[in-house]
Structure formats: structure tokens, C-alpha cells
Amino acid sequence: MRAFHPLASTIAQRFLPGNLTLLLAFLCSLLVAAAPSWAATPPAGTSAQKAVAAPQENAERQYQAAKNFLSRLEQEKDLAKERNNWLKAAHSFRQLHLAQKKEALGPPSLYMTAKVYRLMQARFNLAEDFNKARLYYFEMADLYPGHALADDALYEAAEMLRAKPENAQEAESLYQKIVALHPQSDHAEQARQRLQLAPQEKPPKPAEPAVAQPATAPSAPPTAPPPTPAPTPKTLATVSPAKFWSSEEYSRIVIQTTAPVAFSSGVDDASAPPAKRLHVDFKQSAMAAQHRTPARVEAGLLQQVRASQTSDDTVRMEFDLASFSEYKIFSLNDPFRVIVDIHGSPTTGAVPPDNDTAPSQPAAPLPPVATKPASPAADEAAVVVLAEQKKYKPTPSQPAATGKTSKREQLSLAQQLGLGVRKIVVDPGHGGKDPGAMAFGLKEKDIVLAVSKKLAKELKTAYRYEVVLTRTKDVYLPLEERTAVANTQKSDLFLSIHVNASADKASNGIETYFLNLATDANAMRVAALENATSTHSIGEMQDILASLMKNSKIDESSRLARFVQTNLISGLNKTFKPRDLGVKQAPFYVLIGAEMPAILAEISFITNPEEAKLLQTDEYLDKIAKQIAAGVVAYIEHQRSAALRL
């Protein structure tokens, strides 16, 4: 006879008499036995328990997938048209944050949620998106006040509010909060400029204090738009002080704005020194009066910077130059900025600065479209591009295909002249608030810094080259600053070190890139990942790269990439047997404007379980550094000996 369920029997005995008790107990036991399967405890080893066993790995995969989808939204116009696709991206980041609130991915997931809504607000112009972006930025700053992205969240929220005059006071309070809570952050200086404050750690600039008087309304608050009556402030982007890096023959100027605007540029002959003056005009822009004071620079090629509001909606930036030969100009997004690379002949008596300097002068917005001046060519640009990919797989026994060269035109200019290499800049990718790719508890920024230090040591001690690292610790550097360091240091080679990532955990191998267009889907994916600090569409840089490809350094970069890739594979093959993904080309922002052969090495996949384990060992990282150095030396020796084969 079937035994009664203990619970059913207890209930029946307590509340019912006699035979009725027995009957009801029997019925209750049948009901309990028929309880749904979800009420039972799942057996050990179910998929649900397995999923819980590796929450961090799952979260990292979800985060990377969400970033990849957002990147697609910004690349593919048809996908971006549908608001539901953007909502899907925002929801993915939001759900990940809720699940990872107290974990490492919690803060960046929340920040990305706010960012998606801000991108939506810019695209669809809906108050709902504006309010949600503001809400999530505030939530980020409140929940994680000590996180590296806290000041970013406050600053982005302030910039959003500042664009609407009715929210100017709230924006001002956020700038004050950044200065008070994050005085050493990368946005503190920008916040001070919005508030018209001088940083306490720096002495006041002598030329600035006396002339900080607006033309019409002296009492206008710092966060209000320029005191011009028209057009309405909503239509104007705000120009920030310019940042620059300069040597005797080269200057890179970065001008940031709160929104994309159209710009044009040109070179003017001056009747008196300086010999040349470059100007950049920004449409639909405004600049606070206190930033329009001329600033004497005298940093090698760049002598003076000045800004003016030439009309109600036009800002002109002027740069006095000690000498001039040519310049190029292009723009990047997120944040919006215009990059100006200027070249001149060596000046006498001018001493280049040891590091970058940020004059307290307004910077200009960077537009998606630039017009070319009548004088030297000024390139237009917006952001990322894709282009054709070429793949080389030289054999280990013959590192360079160029060894078969028999015709003079097959040799590069550097080969024909037998040019040598003295100084090498090594760039550890990412850093600071930008961790790069993440998986299995590893961060790209940490791995590449370790490899770069080993590589620098190898090049110095074993081969006696002078080596400069763009960063020696965990700090954030904008992509355009890394190339500027190489150019102002007059480097002979530029090596950017990165770790690859893919949503497919089976993806593995090593590949080396040089700057060019890329049509290969994988090359596009890698470029999108490495450009992630500037989430742009990879299709708007055709004009820039078409011009840059005329530079002879493209050919030299491809040769350098081949030597490095070949030595990496041949040197690691005996012990680690890596997959050779070859040499490819893609539009990496960090390589744009490099005045020397420049490559980007992807030294394994952080998302592949086997390669992730290797990336945690000194033996593997040491070998990678030694083989990159060997590839560089092989390239240099090839350059020296090429002339003998003519």
C-alpha cells in the first residue's frame, strides 16, 4: 500500500477526525506527489549549476558581445536606423550591470548603458533618451565614486546638460563636483575650464587673468553659451582649449568640441614674423571669451596659439609657426576632436618640450567633414574606416619576401639609402580607465604593459637601441597622443602592442597589422575592438587614409610587420606552436599620422582558454618580447643590406 506523504498526514491528523482524516491524507499525498518539476531541487551537474560555476567568464563574454553589437550599430547604417536595436544594446549593458553590481564589470556596464542612451539621444533627439542617459550617468557616479569612470560619468552628464541652457546651473554644479572629488582626473582640467578656474597645482598663466572679460555680458555664468544674441545656444558646439605636442620640425594639435561641426582650414602668409600662420575655422561653434587670449607657446615649430569668435557662429583657431612645409587635418569622434599635424623645417634656437603641453587656450570642435585649403592639402575625416586586407605568410627560413628583390623599384626609399634606426617607441595599448579586452580575470592593459617593458629591455640591453615607452604604468593615454609622442621624439620605428579578443573562444593565433584600409571582416573586427575608446563607425575614414597611403611609410610598415610576424611565429613554434594569422592591414587610430614605420602586434587571444593561460606565464611573455625584438632587428639589418643587392 502506498505510504502517505508525511506533510499530508500531519495536516489531516491535526484538523480532521476519524476516517475523514485518512481519506484527506491520501488525497493530499497525491497532490504533493504531482507537484511541478520546478519545485524540486535540481540534480547536481545541471546546465544551470554549470552556468553559475563560472559567472565571471560568462559576464565577460556577455560584456564583449554587447560591445561588439554596439560597434556594429555604429558601423552599419541599416542596423542603426532601428531604435529597437539601440534599445537592445542598452538593455544588454543594463542587465549585465544588475547581475554584476559588486563585480569588476558592474561599473563599466552601467557607464556603457548611459553612453548608449546618450548616443540614442543624439540620433533620435528624444527627451526619454536624454533623461535615461542622465539618470544612469548619475547612478554611475553615486554607486561607484572611487571608480576610474566616475569622473567620466559626471563630465558626460555635465556636457549633456550644458547643451541645454535651462540646465546650465545643474551642469555647473557637476563641474564643481568633478573638481572637488576628482581633482587629479583627466576631466578635472576640462571642468576647471568650464568653471573658469585655474588648477591649484599649476601657477596661473600670466597672460590670462587680466583679459577674461566677455564682450557684452561680463556677469554671464561660465557655463552659459557665449553672449552673442544669435543663433540660439542650442545650435552651437562649444570649443575647448587646444592641446599640442611639438618639436622643431613637427607639431600635433588636438582641438576638442562638444559636438561634431564642419570645419575648414588654410595657411596665411604673414607680412612680419612668423613666416606662416595656419588657421582652422569651426562652423556652428562658440568659445568662451576668457579662452580667446593669445597664448605664447614657443615650443619648437609652434610659436603662438590664438582663438577668436569671428562671427556669431564661427570660431577661428590660429597657429603661428616658426617654419612651414605642409600639414594634414582630420577628425576623430568620442570625444569629438580635430587633429592637425604640421610639418616644418628645423628652427634655430627653438627647444622642443620634453612632454605634451596644454596651453590654456580654446580648442575647436572636430567635424565630420573638412574642407581643403588652397595651399597645402588638408584632409577631411570623420572617423574609422575599413579597407582591403592583405595577408602574408613568409616561411620561417626566409623572414622577408623582399630578400628576392632584384629590381631597384622593388626596394623602398629607406632600403635604397641604407637608413639606420636609432630610437624606437614602444606603445603598450590601452591603460587606466581603458582596460582593453578582458577574459578569464585578465586585462589586456596589464599584459601588454608587461610585454612592452620586457621588449624595451631587450631592445636596450641586447641590441643597444634607444627605447621610449608611451606609458610605464597604468595610466590612460588618448590614441592621438601616442603617435604624437613618437613623432615629437623623432622615433625611427613605432611598435604598438595589443592582445586580441573574439566572441568565438576557439579563435587563436598571432597577427601583425600596419595602417591601411581593410575590407576583411576579421581585420575590421580587430580594428573596431582596438579603436573602442573612440567608438566610431569604421567606414568614414576613406578620405583620410587615401591621403595617408601616399606616404612611403606605408610600404615600410608592411615590411616591418612581415619581419615581426615571421619571427614571432618561428620563435614560438617549437614550444608553443601558435597559429599564424599573417600580416594584415586595418585602420587603427593609434597608427594614424605616424612619421615612421609603424605596426600593431596582436600577440594572442585573451578570450582563448589555452592562450589566456599562456599569457599569465613569464616564459611566454618573455619569448614574445624577444621574438618581436628579433623581428625588428631583422628588419633593420635588411634595410642596411638592401643597397648591396642593387
The helix/strand class is: alpha/beta
Tell me the CATH superfamily of the domain at 415-645.
Answer: Zn-dependent exopeptidases
Q: How would you sum up the major sheet?
A: 6 strands, mixed
Q: Globular, elongated, flat, extended or rod-shaped: what is the shape? A: globular
> The CATH topology of the domain at 415-645, please?
Aminopeptidase
Percent helix, as a range, is 25-40%
Q: How are the strands of the biggest sheet laid out side by side?
A: 7-8-9-5-4-12
The chain-level mean pLDDT equals 75
Distance between the termini: 102 Å
Radius of gyration: 29 Å
Q: Give the low-pLDDT segments.
A: 32-53, 198-233, 347-409, 533-537
CATH class of the domain at 415-645: Alpha Beta
Percent of sequence in beta strands: 15-25%
Number of strands: 20
How would you describe what is shown here?
The chain has 19 helices and 20 strands. With 646 residues, it is an alpha/beta fold. Among the domains are: 31 residues, no CATH class; 136 residues, Sandwich (Immunoglobulin-like), CATH 2.60.40.3500; 231 residues, 3-Layer(aba) Sandwich (Aminopeptidase). The strands form five sheets. The chain has a six-stranded mixed β-sheet with strand order 7-8-9-5-4-12, with no helix packed on it. Strands 16-13-17-20-18-19 form a six-stranded mixed β-sheet, sandwiched between helices. A hairpin with a 2-residue loop joins strand 14 and strand 15. The protein is globular and about 65 Å long. The N and C termini lie far apart (102 Å). About 20% of the residues have low confidence.
List the helices and strands and how they pair.
Elements lengths: L5 H10 L2 H16 L13 H7 L1 H21 L1 H5 L1 H17 L6 H19 L2 H17 L6 H13 L5 H14 L6 H8 L41 E2 L4 E4 L3 E7 L6 E7 L6 E8 L1 E2 L8 E5 L2 E10 L2 E8 L4 E7 L4 E7 L26 E2 L41 H5 L5 E6 L9 E2 L2 E2 H18 L4 E4 L9 H10 L4 E8 L9 E6 L5 H10 L11 H7 L4 H21 L6 E7 L11 E8 L3 H6 L3 H25 L4
Parallel strand pairs: 1-6, 4-12, 13-16, 13-17, 17-20, 18-19
Antiparallel strand pairs: 2-3, 3-11, 4-5, 5-9, 7-8, 8-9, 10-11, 14-15, 18-20
Helix pairs in contact: 1-2, 4-6, 6-7, 7-8, 8-9, 9-10, 10-11, 13-19, 17-19
